[in-house]
Automatic annotation (TrEMBL):
The lineage of its organism: Bacteria, Pseudomonadati, Pseudomonadota, Alphaproteobacteria, Hyphomicrobiales. Keywords: Membrane, Nucleotidyltransferase, Transferase, Transmembrane, Transmembrane helix. It holds the Pfam family GGDEF. This is diguanylate cyclase. Residues 126-258 form the GGDEF domain.
Amino acid sequence: MNILKSWIERKIETGRFQQRGDVLLFALSRGAITSFAAVGLNHFIYFVLAPAGIIKVPVPSSPVADAFVTLLVSGPISFLAFAMMGQAIHSLALSRDSFERLSRIDPLTGLLNRRAFVEKIEQTKTPYLLVLFDIDRFKSINDRFGHPVGDWVLVDVARLLEEHFSATGYVARLGGEEFGVVICDMPRAAALEQVDLFRAGLANRLFERDDLSFVVTISGGVAEANGTLAYSVLLNSADRALYIAKAAGRNRIVEADELSGPGLGEYLANLPTEQRSA
């Protein structure tokens, strides 16, 4: 049983049984092998075991006719058996792929989820910018208009993010109203320009639904991967920059590199309490 399980897992992992044609080819090939094996086993019994007295069976008068009958009977049966087995493996492969996809996709927005986002970052070998976006005062949107409208805003912002950044990187919903963006293979200045273009474009966009009309803004924190920082360190830097963007009044982008300047702590300490809330 363990051998069969391992064999099925290997076939699925190597991409076999993804198409119905794979099932048909599997059933035809295995059915043919099984049928000819049955013919060979019959002849082994007739001409080896029977003469040796191990098994007492009459030798057919026409071995060729016997082989033909064996093929005629075992062929369709073997084909159907392996076809059913192949179909079961095919369904298992599709279910596994579907589960794997769903485990990596945010169900509301269709973007990558946090797990998939981290995995892609770990696989990214080229320099990149990590941007953490957070919709400003999202709680007030839910409180004023209800959670269905809040979900609609999340879906629409996700769509806009993907349209804006998918050509140069990838986008994820990290949780709540927070999104992550990675921009690859683009000069820093150009990437930062794209980030601020998105921020400004969103702020100038009117969200309209039914009789509602309102503006949504977004804040962002940016950190640059230089090939030496671990993802966790990079994430903390971007998250701190996002916090500063929120604390500084929202609807702005802050780079992590800007946070080492003098007077930052005093500046934050003097901010009104309401400006520090998300």
